[in-house]
Predict the structure.
Amino acid sequence: MPNPKNYDFKSIEEKWQKIWNEKKVAKVENNKVKNKFYMLMMFPYPSGKLHVGHGRNYILGDAVYRFLRMKGLKPLNPMGWDSFGLPAENAAIGKGFHPRKWTLENIQEMKKQFEKWGVLYDWDREILTCDPSYYKWNQWFFLKMYKDNLAYKASANANWCPNCNTVLANEQVIGGVCERCGTQVEGRLLKQWFLRITNYAERLLKGLEKLKNWPERVVTLQRNWIGKSEGTDITFEIKGLNKKIEVFTTRADTLFGATFLAISPDHPLSEELIDKEKFSELKSLRMMKGETYEKMGIKAKYNAIHPLTEKGIPIWIANFVLMEYGTGAIMSVPAHDQRDFEFATKYGINIVEVIHNPKGFDGSCAYTGEGILINSFDFNGMESEKAKEAITEKLEKIGKGKKSVRYKLRDWLISRQRYWGTPIPVVYCSNCGIVPEVEENLPVILPMNIEFKGLKGNPLEASLDFVNTKCPQCGLDAKRETDTMDTFVDSSWYFLRYINPKEESAPFISEDVNKFLPVDLYIGGIEHAILHLLYSRFFTYVLYDFGLINFEEPFEKLFTQGMICKISSITGKLEKMSKSKGNVVAPDEIISKYGADTERLYTLFIGPPEKDAEWSDQGVAGCFRFLKRIWDFSFEISKMEENLSQERDDKILRKFHKTIKKVTEDYDRYHFNTAIAALMEFFNFFEKNTKVKNKTFLEEILLNFLKLLYPMAPHICEEINQTIFGDKEILLEKEWPKYDPELAKEEMVTIAIQVNGKLRGQIEVPENSEEEFVVEKAIKEEKVRNYLEGKEIRKKIYVKNKIINFVI
């Protein structure tokens, strides 16, 4: 029997982690699944030691997993590693060892941390995206897409560091300079590989309507990223140059107010429209694009011809116009677009009002609303909506425009001039041109004999054994592609590979995948709301079209947890945990001092899981004291003499059944913070009211209490259940407690409803109802509604269990 004064969390947690691992309690066999449930954590990048902020995702997921097990399911819950990527390559350059070595060492460290937290995964399904057995199938998918014209090579602008002689990702450009060497970054047009995600824009957009169990915020972010717009394509000819500029606008009604054209610095015509002596100015403009910079421009030496008035209007190369949207060119209407207005004001460009502003146009800002057309010739007096159609029809008749649907979404650029990624399976032959590798030669192996000494350029280019090859088509000498794939490719289908992680003849077995997917519950950070989820959806649609799977959407339900924040020692502000901010809390320190169960409990108690929360060291200590009280109290109950009474305390029983109901409902919606609060409230009550001498009754309450706590603090609950009370069956295999609806029924109270202090009605609500619930019910009461209708509620005064007074 353990010492009641010695809650030895260290030995307890090591003991149970060993038991769970040896028994492989999370292992699921494909052919033995009855009620399938596939839950998934977004798999991590192995960047080194995890901090408590990372733990929120994995601890939350483990609590859900254990709860579902006790509810009768055995979820598939795998884990793997998103192990290609730039940080490993940068570490190799900085520290002088291979990215693979750095990656594998980090994985081992992170697996130890997972184990210390007590999180359960089916490790027999572990995948490593930098392993050839995985990335072979990246290459296989690429070849299928290439064959179906979904993969192609084209020119694209990139961030280029002339000193490092390499392309940089946007996040590597800090204030216009290279984060590695501090050199001014320039734009450069490079031939790169793309996937035609735009072919799926409309399906991806419509598919969002099916995602009823996704956070609305995420759906909105995806919808905005796809960015469907219905409008008009308009052609402006260039005077004195046999070229045209296509623009897209949703406001064809403002066409007569277009006093200049603005094109992106990256527009294909940008250099042709200016003299060579302005090229250096254009180069600078390319590095200062977007809303974060002051609006700047270069006036072109040509004018555009207005398609309806046939008058000349100037062309400007402007840094607020991006190639990523529309055609990379806009008709600028400064009277009715604020960005155009600011640019025109700065450069003295004409401003013409063409939509009547009911408040009058005073020249201080643009009027962006719709209304009656003025200064628009034959279209004067028309409402905007009608004018859009009429002007578009006119343009169609003269061959200068047409109705159009555009998307902000651009094709997915997957080329990375990096070493540590999936080699793109293509060769270049002087005889045959671009030739895809044959399937039998996959995988195209990433060479390991690469030196990282901070040399300029892509290290793969220096590997002659890799670069020099034979053409799969004609057998002559050829060169391999040295670009590698964007790591988002790795994470766009990994959830399928988990089903058959050892399969060698295919990326997965379709029959098995169709049985397990879509994923029932996907848990991860809101920061992945756009790109990762969008690319995963795209991949799933493509594989559906290839006939490899029978579903289009990969994730049935999505839960996005918030971040843990702490005061930064650098800025003194509350910020997301980060080594660079000096506000990281290491799990090992917490576990060493208080134990993993304490960290788990506090991480889940810190606040609603979907919202950001602030870390508090005092809060951690409070959770430890709560667990220690449970340990001590359990020991006291176990030492009681056998039943000296058959008495059952109805107050405790009713309180506990209400707690079971409350905690179960909170688990179902992942609100562990309120579940913990309910458990703390009940335990306080239980401790103070344990007066009966019926040991069996008290043990029954306590053991069911431990089941409710178990998913969040599993080690201590297992230990009390086994060591103190002698139960040999692990709690993970136990059934979740059920409540008696009669015992769990809330006591009802009558609430008087006042308006300006006068009684206007009453309602019945559960005892101790929160104000928000009472207000919502009170304003729906018919008699009260008559007094509130059309009135402004200035104040609400709620006295719990008695009255609600609306001051209007």
